Protein 1
Amino acid sequence: MDRTHRESDLERTVLGPLRKTSMQFWLVIAVLGGLVLMGAVLLGRQWTTGLGVTGLKRPIYWGVYISNFVFFIGISHAGTLISAILRVTQAEWRRPITRIAEAITFFALILGALQLWIDLGRPDRILFLFFFGRFQSPLLWDVTCVTLYLLSSTLYLYLPMIPDLARLRDRMTDAPRWRRRIYTVMAAGWHGSHEQHRRLERGISIMAVLIIPIAVSVHTVVSWIFGMTMQPMWHSTILGPYFVVGAIFSGIAMLFIFMTIVRRAWHLERWIKAKQYDYLGILLLVMSAFWGYFTLSEYLTTGYSSLINEVQVLLAKIQGEYAPWFCAMVFCNLILPFAILIRRKGRTPTGAFIVAVGVAIGMWIERYTIIAPSLTRPALMARFAIYTPTFTEVGLTIASLALFALLFLLFFKLFPAISVWEVEEGQAVAAARQKAEELLRQGQLEPTLPTP
Amino acid sequence: MPRWGMVIDLDKCFACQSCTVACRMENNTPVAGPDQTARGRAILWNEVLPFIEGEYPKVHVQLIPRPCQMCDNPPCIHVCPVKATYKTDEGIILVDYKRCIGCRFCAVACPYQVRYFNWYVPEWPAALKAHLNPDPEVQPRPRGVIEKCTFCIQRLRKAREKAEAEGRPFTATDYVPACVQTCTGHARYFGDLDDPNSLVHQLAHSPRAFRLLEEMGTQPKVYYLKQG
C-alpha cells in the first residue's frame, strides 16, 4: 500500500477511536478499574480466610460462582458460534459485527475459567487439574473443552484480524512505538498478495467449520457436570441441548449489548445498521422460542410425574422461595423478547438493547435457578437448606462483569471494532452484483447458469 | 481380603449421639461453634438425622444415624477430577487431603451428603485442643479441602500392627470404628461382609435389612435394620 493512500470513510471512522481517546472513555475505564480492584480485594480476603466468606454451606456446595461460570461460558457462544454459522452460510450482513462477536467469546471464556478458579477451595492447586487430571470426571471434560475452545477461538479471532493489523501497521505511523511493534509483529508480514488472501480465506473457512462442533461440545459438557450427578432435576438428558440453546440465546443478547455500546461510543452508526438489528433480532426471537420450548418440556415432564424428590425441587421454583426468580426468568427470557422484538418497529437499537439486557439478566437467573434449588433439596435430607449469597459473592460477580467490559473496551482501543477488509470486500461484492444486475437489465449480459 | 461393612439396628438406637461425639474425638473434626453450625458449616462425619414424617397429631420421627455409606459404586469417586478420593481394596473410601483441590464436586455428587468441606482453618477451644487425637493419620485437615468418615482407618492400621506385634494373624474382629465401640444401645455392628459367618453378613441378609436410597444403585456397605 502506498503512502499517498487516501483514507476511505470506513477507515476514518473505524480507525478514529484508535487515534483519539475522549475523557469519557478514561472515566469509564477508571470506574470499571475501581470495580475490578474491589473484586481483587474481596478475592484476596476469600483466599486468606477461606470459602467461609461465601454463603455456601452443606449441602449447597455450589452457588453464585458456578452460576457465573456457566453464564460466562454461555455468553462466549455469542461470538464464535454466531460468527461461524453466519460465515459458513455466507450471510453478508455479518461482516460489520463478526469482530465484536469474536472478541466477546475470547474474553468471556477467560472470565469463565476465572470463575472456576475463584470457586476452588485450594486455588493454589489449580494445576493439579493438568498434572493429575482424570478423564472420568465431567469437570475434566470441561477443562479440556474450554481449553480447546479458548485456543481455537483465539485463532479464529486472530486470523481475520491479520489484514487489518497490516493496515494499522501501515497507517498508524504516529502511534507510540510499542503499539506499532504490536501491529508489526501481529500482522505477520501481510502484504495483501493474492496467495496470502487465498490461504487466509482457506484458514478462516476451516476454522469456521471446526469451531461449531467445539462450541456445541463446550456447553454440553458444562451441563454435564450437573447432568452426570444424581441430584433431582439435574439428572436429565435434556440438560445438554437446553444449555446449548441457552448459551446461544444469551450469547446473542451479549452481542446486542456490546455492539450497541461500541456503535454508539465509536460512532459506527453508518456501518452497523438497522439490517443487523433486524436480522439478529429475529435470531434472538427464534432462540427465545427454543428456550421456552425446552423449559416447558423440562418442567412439564417433571411436574407430571410423582417422583417426590424431583417434584419438591420443582415446587421450590414455582411456588417456593425461588418463585420470584423463576417468574423474573420467564419474564426476561420469553415475555420481554416477544413483546418488543415481534414487530419490525421494535427491532431497533434501543429496543434490542433493552431486550438484550433483560435476556442477559434472565439467563443468569436461569443458571442460578438450575443450580441452587436442586442443592437445597437433595434426595436424603432431614431439612431443606436455604442459601443466601453474601456480599463477597455479589461483589465478585460485579467485579467479573466489570473486568469483562474493561478487557473488551481496552481491546477495541487497540484494534478496530469492525473488520475493515471484510466490509470492504462486502462493498466490492455488492457493487459487482449491482453492476451485473444493471447490465442484465440492459440486456448486455446473458443470464446463464454456471456450467457444472 | 475383608469387605468392611456396618449394620445399624434402628430398634436399638435411641439417638443418644454418642457415636457423633466419639467420632469427633477420634477423628479430630473441628468445632464450628453455634453460629457457623446454624449456617450449615458444622463438620460431623457421623450425624444422626431426624426425619419427621406426617403432621400433628400423627407425627413420626425416624432417627437415622448416618456415617459414610461406603458405596461399592461410589458417585463421589466417579466425578473427582484429580483422583483425590479413592476406594481402598477393602472397600473404604478415603480422601487425599494433599491432592484435593476443593472443587466440591464429590460433595455435590454424594446423595447422602457425607462429605464435609473445610470452610475455614479448623479451630478448637483451648481445652479441647490439648486433647486432640495425636495419631498422624487424623491430623487436622487444612482449609479448603473435603473430609469425610473413614471407618476410622487409623484404627484398622493399629489393629493390624498390634496383631503382627503379637505374632498372630489379623482377624476381622480385631477392629471396630469408634462409633461402633461407643454405641450405648449396642445398635451398631461392624465386620467383614464377605465372611458368611460374620454377624454383619448375617444381619445384612436379615429380612429387616435395608439400605439408604438403594434405588440409586450406589450399593452402600452400611445396612439398616428396620424399626418396629
Protein 2
Amino acid sequence: MSTKDDTGLLRSVLPPERVDQLFDLCGTHSWKLILLSAVIGALPPVFGLREGYMMTVISEMFLFAILALSWDIVGGQTGYPSFGNMAFFGIGAYTGAILLKDFAVSFPLAVVTAGVFATVFAAIIGLIVLRLRGHYFAIATLGVLLAAQQISRNLEITGGASGKILFDVPPGIVFYYFFLGVLVAEIIVVYYLSNTRFGFILNAIRDDEGKATAMGFNTTYYKTAAWMLAALFTGLAGGAYGLFNTFIDPQTAYNGAWNVELIAMALMGGTGTVAGPVIGAFGLHTIIEYVETAFVGWQLVLLGLAVIVTVIGFPKGVVGSLREYANEMDYYERGGMAATDGAADGTDAATDANDPEVTTDE
Amino acid sequence: MAIAQFVVNGLLVGALFAAVAVGFALIWGVVDIINLAHGEMVMLGGYTAYWLLSIATGTAEGSVLLFLATLPVVIAVLFVLGYVLQRTLVSRVIGTDIFLTLLVTFGISIAIQQLAIQAWTANPRSIQVGFADPSLIVAGVVIPKMKLVAFFGAIVLTAILYLFLQRTRTGRAIRAVSQNPEAAALVGIDVEHTRAVTFGISSAVAGGAGAFIATILNIEPQMGLIYTLKSFVIVVFGGVGSIPGALTGGLLLGVVEELTAGLISSRWTLAVSFTLLIVLLVVKPQGLFGTGADE
Amino acid sequence: MSNTPDTDEPEMTANAADAVLRTEGITKRFGGLTAVDDVDVEVHEGEIVGLIGPNGAGKSTLFNCITGTLTADEGRVTLQGQDVTDWPEYKIARAGLGRMFQETRIFGGMSVRKNLLLAAQEGGADIGGLLRRPDDSLLERTNELLEYVDLGGLADTRAGRLSFGQQKLIEFVMALMAEPELLLMDEPAGGINPSMLENLIDYIRTANDEEEATIFLIEHNMDFVMEIADRIYVLAHGERIAAGTPEEIQNDQRVIDAYLGRE
C-alpha cells in the first residue's frame, strides 16, 4: 500500500518505464515465454535428476503452483477468495486413492476421474456458496473444507481416520512430469482465458458485480464456471497426490494449512495475474522447504508471519506491485493529466490518494 | 430418559459455546472483522488456567475455588493479548478488503497454534477439579457439578459483558463505534483505542470460557479453528448484534451436538456442526447478504 | 408470465411501434412509504427524455424498477414492445437497456480498453463468443470511441486510476459500445466541472444524432437538462406531476411549486 512514496532509490536503479517495457515484452512474447519455461521445467530429469529429495521438492513446487493458480482463478480473477479450495484437492485425492486401491483402476483413468469428481462436486457446492459474499462466502468455504474432512474421517470407504496407504507407486519422474504437464496446461488455459471475454467478465465480477449484472451478465454462470475450472485442476493434482505421497488421510487430503499456504502464494506473487501465483508458489515453497528442514516444527509460525507481513505491507504481491509501478508512469507519460477535464487537478489528486482503497474495496 | 440426559449435557456445554460466540460477535459487530484467531484465544485461556493451576499445585488439579481464582488472571492476560493484537496488526487492515482482514487473523491463528505446539506439544490436556461428590442427580439426569459450575460461569461471563456494554461509559463508546465510527470520532471517542479495547474484551471472554472448557473437555493447541467456526454458526443463527441471540444459538448448538453424539456417534458431531453451518447459510441467505458483505 | 402480448391495448398500437420504453402504473412501496406512485412514462426512439424532481421524489427508484434492480409492486414495464416487468436484471440489460450509475461505476481493476471491450461484446452469450479474443474491428471501435472523448492515450491504464470526470466519460463510452436500444443515465452532469459539462453535452448530442442513441436521464442540473432534453417528466413525492417540452415544464406552476416548496 505504500510502495508509491518511497521509491527514490528504486526509481534510479529501475525506472518505471523499464518495468513497463519489460511487461510489454512479456506481453508480446508471452507464448514463447510459456513454452520456454515449460522446456526449462522439463530439463532437470534429462540432465540426470531422476530421484531423491530435489526431485520431490521440485515436483511439490509444480503441485503448489497448480493449487495457487487454481485458487487465483476464483480468488484473484473473480474476487471470491475461497478458504476451502483444499476440499477439491481432498475429493480428488480420495477419488484417486479409492479407484487405485479398491477398484484397481489404471493411474491415468483414476486421475482423470478424480478431476471430474472434483469438478462435479464444485458445481453442486458452487450453487450454494457462490450466492454468498464477503465474510459469509469465506467462512462457508472453510465450512465445506472442514465438513468434507470430518465426513472422510467417518466413512468406511475412505479408510476413516487412519486413511489409505497406497502401494505400487510409479517412479518419481512420472509425478514430476505429470505435475509439470498439468501446470503448463493450466497456465495456458488461464492465460488464454484472461484475454477473452470470459476472462474479462470474471474480472468485472471482481471489480463490481452489480455493474456486471446491470450490463447484462448472469454472473452466477460465470462464477460457477470459474469455480469448476479451479476444481478441475485442483482435483487432477489431488488425484495424483495420494500415490505421490503413498498415503492419504483426512488431515493430509483436506489440509487446512495448505489452504492458507496456497492463498499466501497467490497473494505474495500477485493475485489476479497468471505469473504471480506461480512465482509465489515457487518462492514460498522453497522457503518453507528450507525452514522445514532447518527449523523443524516452525514452518507454520513462519507461514503465519509471512501472511501477516504480506497482507499488511505488500498486498498487491510482486507482480501486482511492479505492474502498478510501471502503470503509474504510464498514466502521466501518456498524458493522464493533460487529458483530464481542465480544472480537475483537485479531483484527480483526490482520486489518486484514495486509489488503493478504491481498488481493494471494489 | 436418555434424551433428557443428552439435552441437559447439551445445554451445559452450549452455554460455553455461547460465551465464546458472544466475543466473536462483538468484534464482528464493532470492528467489522471476522476474527479467525478467536478460537486461539479460547485455547490460550485454557492453557493459561492450566499452567497457573500447575504452578500453584504442582499438578493441574485443584479445588473449585482455586480454579476460580485463576480466572481474573486468565481474563487479564487475554485482554492484554487481544488489545495488543488489534493495536499492532489488525488495525492496519481495517477498512481494506475483507479478504485481507480474514487473512491477517488467519495468519495470527496458525502462528499461535504452531507456537502452542512448540511450547506445550500437541497432546490434549485437561484441568481436574476435585469434588467430594462429583455429580448431582436430578430426576434421573446426571449433572456433573463441574459442568454446572462451567455453565453458570459462562452465563456470568456473558451477563457481565452485556451489562458492561449497556451500563458503562466504555460500553457506550464501543456501541457508538459499532454504529458509526466517524460520528464517534467527532464526539471525541478514541476509535482506535475503543476498537482495541473491544478486541481485548472479546479475547478475555473467550479466554475465560476456554478456562472452563479445560475443566470439562480437553484443550489442545489445534482446537481453535473448531471454536471459531462454531462461533460463526451461532452468530449467523442468532444475528450479529444480539447477545440473547448468541446465547440461544449456543445452547441450541450444544444440544444438537450432544444429541448427535448420543444418538449417532460422537465422531459425527463436528461433521454435523459444519454441515449445519452450510445449511444455515443456504436457508437464510437473504438475511445474511446485507451485513458486512455490502460493497 | 412475461409472454403477455403488449397489443392488448389497441389505442396504444399507433405509438407502440416507436415506444422504446413504456411504464404503466409503476408503483413501489418501501414499508409504509410509497416511493413511486402509479407512474406512466414513455420514451420514443431517437428521443432524449429528462426526468427531474426534488430529492426523494422517487427518480432513482423508478429507474431501478425499469432496470429490474427492484421489482415494482404494481404496474408493467415494456421494452421494445416486450413485457419485461418480471425479468431478472441481467436479462433486461441484454434486451437492450444500458445504464449509467449516479456514482459512476466502471471496473477499476481492469484496463480502460478491457472495460470497453467487455461492454461491446455484451450481445452474445454463446461459448464461442466467450472464448474468442476480441477481433480487430472491435479494437478499432474502442480506439475510435476513446479518441472521440480524448482519452486515447489511456487505453492501457487501469481504469481505477482515472479521475472522476474521466471515469464518467469511460462509463459513457462503455454504454455506447453496447449500442443499447435505450440508455438510462442517472445524473450524468453530477460532480463534473463546467468545461467538462460542455463536452458532455456535445458527446450526448452527437451520440443521439449519429449513433441514434435513445436516452432517458435523471438530472438535477436544470440548465443542462433544459438544453439537452426533447421532453421532460417531473416527479414529486413519487407521483408524476408534469410532462412536456422544456418550455412547458419551465412555465408549469405545479413544477415551480414542487421545487420552491421543497427549498
